[in-house]
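Annotated sample (chain length 338).
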Amino acid sequence: MAAARDPLALMGVEVVPLTPVHVDASVRVLAAARDSLLRIEPVLGEGLPDPSVSREIIAATVDSGPAFLALREGDGVGFLAGTVRSHGGSRLAHTRLHQHAVDASDRRDIVRRLYEAMARRVTAIGCFRHQIDVAVADALAVQTWFELGFAVDQIKGVRACDAVGFTGADVKVRSAGPGDLDKLIALAVDLARFHASPPMLAPVFLDALAISRDMEEALQKEDATILVAVDGDVNLGMMQVHPDGSMPRVATIGMAMVANGQRSRGVGSAILAEVLEWARNLGYQHCAVGWTSANPLSDRFWRSRGFKPVRYSLARQIDERVSWANADLKGEDILRPW
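Output written by the structure step:
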């Protein structure tokens, strides 16, 4: 019996490694994706680079990580790139919102072919956790990646910085200072331990020096702050807030924690009200926050405080035993620097 032919190949679609000659084609595809996202989720769409910037960004991906282009009759119709980095002692391949786009009516099939190429390459270099960011409002993208074995890991939510709409506990909230550093680190450790409990069951990887360094830097920045709720010398909770890395005019809450034994009494709401006021006073239009989908406390809290999910980080964990089946992979599949 003759081998089955690839249906996409019959439609003239070819997936090739992304090279410098393909940058312009990728820029056109990303521009179309940006226009679409601006219509369905403007806050996210404004965060995607426009063509004048995306050309430089896409060009930088050619040698910095795995990247593939889908061609139909010589024209680019989609691309998928990733960044490989360390993650808890193993390797993670992360595709951000600006690192993938498809502009074609058969988008689902093209995405599947692009991921086939990406998965082959990154697993060959020992990268077994794959992650991709997608817009919640892009139902087809979400469904396509679900069908490829991905699930929601992290949620990014956004709300306006206007009227608070909730009440918090009657506690003192102030900006943290250098004297709070040890207590902030203790809260960060408690947060990591909490995420190790069910249903999150996330392994704990703590780097006290890195946590201390990040918090010291946050305390020194003029455009960032850490707000703490205190009762005398006791820190009841904290929230770190800074400019969002991708969405303009958006302040993003980073680390956020209410101490064990202080939850469900309005401490988090009191800190959040001050965060929104801080962001509003600096001219931010929106506030964003990310949370672990499986965290029941965070999911309930942020949604009930007006944060609308706009972006999913979808993840897939590959059984590492698959490497036994691919032990014959050689050459460029395993010798790339990333």
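Annotation: The longest helix spans residues 23-40.
Annotation: The chain has two domains: 7-154+315-335, 167-304.
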